[in-house]
Amino acid sequence: MPENTGPAGAPLDDDARAALEELGEIRGSIDNIDAALVHLLAERFKFTQSVGRLKAAHGLPAADPERERRQILRLRALAEESRLDPAFAEKFLNFIVAEVIHHHTRIAEDQGASTSAVAPEDGGPTA
């Protein structure tokens, strides 16, 4: 699209061109935040994978409802302080927690399969 026309091909005045330029800058900031969120989630999941391996090694359940309850309360308060809808923050956390529990369950199943396939005394992995 030429610089002097809008999405419909109509000519743009100076105000519209300035608005489109500002829109591009704002969207660039959003893109940067989205990239940071993905990197932060990747880091978070590295830690939750460690938690999952530790839980599996010690026969602990994948879910921890009391921890989840405390986290929801904490994140709702943080959301309110940050002027973010607490209900949205709770939904977001619930989505992440569901994925974490799924990962923990899978880790426990994998560790159970690998530890039962070769006993430790036979040189296999230890739980």
TrEMBL record:
Highest taxon above the source species: Bacteria
Ranges for domain Chorismate mutase: 17-108
One GO molecular-function entry: chorismate mutase activity
GO biological process, one term: chorismate metabolic process
Keyword Isomerase among UniProt keywords: yes
Chain positions covered by the region annotation Disordered: 108-127
Keyword Signal set for record: no
Coiled-coil parts of chain: none
Keywords on record: Isomerase
SUPFAM superfamilies: Chorismate mutase II
Cited NCBIfam families: CM_mono_cladeE, PRK09239.1
Name this polypeptide is given: Chorismate mutase
Protein source organism: Clavibacter tessellarius
